[in-house]
Design brief:
This protein is of the alpha/beta class. The chain has 11 helices and 14 strands. It has 2 domains: 222 residues, Rossmann fold; 70 residues, Alpha-Beta Plaits, CATH 3.30.70. Strand 1 and strand 2 form a beta hairpin.
Length: 323
């Protein structure tokens, strides 16, 4: 029997040296991603998500711990690991801009050892599903950025790998195309083709919508791991107060309040949103009014249920969108 298509990490560690100081980018991570699972790694900038993906995909050699991909050890059998894997990282750097989509896919098919007799059928399927059929003679440099991203996805899938590592699949994409990519990952890759998928994101809605299980990552460590529903149910406080304001806020007071409350502040469409989980909405509301006094106007107050981001803030004290 062939080894099952799972990813196992034990105490995986990667350390960088920055100006003499050690950064433990991945700090003793142990995870089991099961065959056929769509698993999400959620964390803010600098959490270590990309470094983890690079270790598993054999682009970086870890400083400690082990990992196996589809039964192969990343240190002992890197070539076998690579054959099991499709790796999609953001951007279009992985394509040859002077070549057409078909030329690109033929090149990568040869590189990944796709049998010649299967190559054309594989390319036809991928160009069809990515809706690139009328662009087969256009050089990549002339494609729109959405089309380049679609071709990058096709390139990742050319050798039909059973396990996919997808780093920030929708970063910088317009909402329409982001929707296409999410649906494609969920319905086609995981749903129909049963691929094992590890994806990273710092969009909590994306993790919530797509993933069977989610691990929260912060400063190289896994802080929590469960289904999105169970994570949200783990919040001891069931209500979240969301205050929408127009204007600015007192940054010092905000930092001080954060010490004592699970508080998250974000800016969207010119408005400030303060979210906090609480047992006592009234006290907290008066504190938010203090927070924005003289600086902003409270437009609305809403009592809602916790989102994955609220749980993340509650557990780590860090917002996913922190600068
Ligand atoms: N090549 C490198 N050399 C030195 N430090 C690095 C290197 N790559 C990453 N780091 C550091 O390791 C930590 C983790 O970075 P990483 O890119 O893995 O985070 P991330 O979770 O992918 O963040 P983002 O959401 O911004 O993509 C950061 O502190 C980063 O500065
Ligand atoms: Mg990253």
């Amino acid at each position: 029997m062939s080894p099952s298509n799972e990813i196992i990490m034990r105490d995986l560690t990667k350390i960088f040296k920055k100006r003499g100081e050690e950064v433990r980018a991945v700090d003793g991570v142990s995870l089991d991603i099961k065959e056929g699972e769509l698993f999400g790694l959620l964390g803010p900038n600098g959490a270590g998500k990309t470094t983890l993906i690079k270790c598993i995909s054999t682009l970086l050699i870890p400083d400690g711990g082990t990992s196996t991909v589809g039964g192969y050890d990343i240190r002992r059998d890197p070539l076998c690991v690579r054959r099991k894997l499709g790796v999609l990282t953001g951007g279009e750097r992985s394509l040859y801009w002077k070549l057409t989509p078909v030329e690109n896919l033929k090149y990568f098919a040869a590189l990944y050892g796709v049998p010649r007799k299967n190559t054309q059928a594989r390319i036809d399927y991928l160009l069809d599903i990515m809706d690139l059929k009328d662009k087969i003679h256009t050089r990549v440099e002339r494609l729109s950025s959405g089309m380049k991203q679609k071709l990058s996805i096709a390139r990742t899938l050319i050798h039909d790998p059973p396990i996919l590592l997808i780093d920030e699949p929708t970063l910088g994409l317009d909402p329409y195309f982001a929707r296409f990519v999410r649906d494609f990952i969920k319905n086609e890759l995981n749903g129909r083709l049963k691929k094992t998928i590890l994806l990273t994101t710092h969009y909590m809605e994306e993790a919530d919508e797509l993933c069977d299980r989610v691990a929260f990552m912060n400063r190289g460590k896994i802080m929590a791991l469960d289904t999105p529903t169970a994570l949200k149910e783990s919040m001891p406080r069931e209500q979240v107060l969301e205050v929408k304001c127009l204007g600015d806020f007192d940054k010092e007071l905000f930092s001080a309040m954060r010490e004592s409350a699970s508080l998250n502040l974000s800016k969207r469409d010119g408005f400030i949103y303060v979210r906090m989980s609480t047992d006592n909405p009234e006290t907290l509301l008066s504190r938010v009014v203090d927070l924005v006094r003289d600086k902003a106007k409270v437009l609305s107050v809403l009592v809602t249920s916790p989102t994955l981001e609220d749980v993340f803030v509650y557990l780590t004290g860090v917002s996913l969108k922190d600068e």
